[in-house]
Design a protein that fits this description.
The complex is a heterodimer of chains A (366) and B (271). Chain A is 23% helix and 34% strand. Chain A is elongated and about 75 Å long. Chain B is mostly helical and 271 residues long. Chain B has two domains: 31 residues; 209 residues, Orthogonal Bundle (MetI-like fold). Chain B is built from twelve helices and no strands.
Chain lengths: 366, 271
């Protein structure tokens, strides 16, 4: 069990820094997901914690011990690779027990632990097989068993599910989460899949271009994105963005973009002034059909109805812009129809168009 | 009709090519089992009483026997030492040499650009001075320059095809670099490395020019076989044929092994 702290981490290839002064604290027992688009530095960060990548500057501590220059084998961490990285010339059992055999752990202790992890992951029937005779999901489980049998301080997962089909991915995601609930080992899980991150994480570290954009629980990230980037990256269907101008009237704040006019909550955005340019973020899932005269009602023409099963995404056109929303009542809508839908002022996000930062007051509680 | 001719041609042309290619070899093998009077008849004989006298003669002949032994010693030593030096070097080039890797690899290959004749004569002088002219050691030494470079050149891609993740997973288990090499990279790359060694073996086994210039008493089999052909009118055709068969046999066996290996690799497919 261990906490991890990364202080002023710099990673440069040649003169070009890809990560420049990153700070991160991961408390004991947490399941942390590094999330971001490809090339954001999340895998590099994970590999530096694993010891597979040199750190150009800064320190990494695992349970308050400086491991910055320790070789990977001495950090007491175990990693599951995207490609599983099973040893092709060894049987499944040998793959799983290699690390323990190498440390000359007693044979019966190895057998006991092997039986335990194999049972946990349903690998008993495959122990004598070679990895190439296993399916992708089974190989994935062997890779997890190999990491678990060492009972390390930290588990590192580098996009472990991205080579699996959607159904299996969901199943293994649940399994990984369950295993974490029982073992409580500090875990870092890297993914570019925001849904995977939302479902599995205690805490999400959202990265972009080698920087941390936001750290928070899945709810915080979803409900209170710190920047336009975060808001855009999280949530399906993706958020609608509108350039708007703020005006202050007796009733409070009004954001207008052409024919569209939306009421904002003055408590949430105390910094907004008359005439400020802003970018509004409207989550499709936070909008629904309404009466034409409701608060914040928007009127648009249906362009497309996307059936998602229990609900549908309606893409509408208004004032030259496309805005989508989600409703369960999608089956009675047809392209070309006029629809009215609304968003509650509490669910409108406002961003600074220059910096992309959220203009929501930090004091206000969720 | 045209289709029919096409089909026929598809079968006939390869058949002719095979006959042309295998004809001389077939004739040589036949000749190896013929007595001299069956060979020198004006009308070629296909039916004859086979004999193994030619092989007996060869294996009794001390020059040929020594040549065979020399070849085995020189070639084995060259391939073995070449592998010991070349395979770790290739792994280092494939994994650790970041800045100069390509240059080193090109330099290694460039050792093979020079025609052997160009290095043979300076080598005679150097070897005479060093007192290693006409020694098996001298031959092994000169062959190593080519075998190490061939092995490196062929082994680098073999190691590059070992997934880096596997080496990293091994490092995560606490293996230092030498152990990662010995217990993971080497066994995983082994099939391709075996091909590199076989190729090197064949290359050195067939080498004639350097062996001819750098050794006199301690000649290798190609040199001996070549010298029999220059015996003048009293050519012992049967013996030459038998010597040729003996010379061709080891590379043929190895090539067979190599092909079998390649086929099995293709069949099991990349994983």
């Amino acid at each position: 069990m261990a906490n991890i702290s990364c202080t002023d981490i710099v990673k440069a290839y040649g003169a070009h820094p890809v990560i420049d002064g990153l700070n991160l604290e991961i408390p004991d027992h947490q399941f942390v997901v590094f999330l971001g688009p490809s090339g954001c530095g999340k895998s590099t960060m994970l590999r530096m914690i694993a010891g597979l990548e040199d750190v150009t500057g800064g320190t990494i501590e695992i349970s308050d011990e400086d491991v910055t220059t320790l070789p990977p084998g001495e950090r007491d961490v175990a990693m599951v690779f995207q490609s599983y990285a099973l040893y092709p010339h060894m049987s499944v059992a040998d793959n799983i027990t290699f690390g323990l055999r190498r440390q000359s752990v007693a044979r019966d202790e190895i057998d006991r632990r092997l039986n335990h992890v194999a049972g946990l992951l349903g690998l008993e029937p495959f122990l004598d097989r070679k990895p190439k005779n296993l399916s992708g999901g089974q190989q994935q489980r062997v890779a997890m068993a190999r990491a678990m049998i060492k009972t390390p301080k930290v588990f590192l997962f580098d996009e472990p599910l991205s080579n699996l089909d959607a159904k299996l991915r969901e199943k293994l995601r649940t399994e990984i989460r369950k295993i974490h609930l029982s073992l409580k080992t500090t875990t870092i899980f890297v993914t570019h899949d925001q849904l995977e991150a939302m479902t599995i994480a205690d805490s999400i570290v959202l990265m972009q271009s080698g920087r941390i954009e936001q750290i928070g629980t899945p709810d915080e990230i979803f409900e209170r994105p710190a920047s336009r980037f975060v808001a855009d990256f999280i949530g399906t269907p993706a958020m609608n963005f509108l350039q708007a101008k703020i005006s202050v009237d007796p009733e409070g704040l009004l954001a207008t973009a052409g024919e569209i006019a939306l009421r904002l909550s003055p408590e949430m955005f105390p910094s907004l002034k008359d005439g400020s340019d802003v970018e509004l973020g409207l989550r499709p899932s936070r909008m629904d059909l309404c009466e034409p005269d409701a608060t914040n009602a928007l009127t648009g023409h249906v362009v497309l109805v996307e059936n998602m099963g229990s609900e549908g995404q309606i893409i509408t056109e208004m004032d030259g812009q496309e805005i989508s929303f989600v409703t369960k009542e999608f089956r009675r809508l047809q392209p070309g129809q006029t629809v009215h839908f609304a968003i509650h002022p509490e669910h409108i996000h406002v961003f600074d168009p220059k910096t992309g930062k959220s203009l929501r007051s930090p004091d206000e509680t969720l | 009709m045209g289709k029919l001719i096409g089909h026929a041609a598809m079968r006939i042309i390869p058949a002719v090519l095979v006959v042309v290619a295998l004809g001389p070899i077939f004739w040589t093998v036949l000749g190896a089992f013929k007595e001299l009077r069956d060979i020198v008849t004006p009308i070629p004989k296909l039916v004859f009483e086979p004999t193994i006298d030619n092989f007996v003669t060869i294996l009794r002949n001390p020059t040929i026997r020594d040549g065979l032994l020399n070849s085995v010693v020189v070639v084995s030593a060259t391939v073995l030492i070449g592998a010991l030096l070349g395979i770790p070097a290739a792994h280092a080039l494939a994994r650790y040499a970041r800045r100069w890797g390509d240059d080193i690899q090109f330099f290694v290959l460039s050792l093979r650009f020079m025609p052997p004749v160009a290095i043979a004569i300076p080598f005679i002088v150097i070897y005479l001075d060093l007192g290693i002219y006409d020694t098996l050691f001298g031959l092994v030494l000169v062959y190593l320059t080519t075998s190490v470079s061939t092995i490196i050149w062929l082994a680098v891609p073999a190691f590059e095809s070992v997934p880096r993740d596997i080496e990293e997973a091994a490092a995560m288990e606490g293996c230092p670099p030498w152990e990662v090499f010995w217990r993971f990279s080497l066994p995983i790359a082994a099939p391709s490395l075996f091909g590199a060694l076989v190729f090197t073996f064949v290359l050195v086994w067939n080498e004639l020019l350097l062996a001819l210039t750098l050794a006199a008493q301690n000649a290798t089999l190609p040199v001996v076989a070549a010298s029999i052909t220059s015996l003048g009118k009293e050519v012992p055709w049967g013996v030459i044929n038998a010597a040729t068969v003996l010379l061709v046999l080891p590379p043929l066996v190895f090539i067979g092994l190599l092909m079998g290996l390649l086929n099995s690799m293709v069949r099991s497919g990349p994983k």
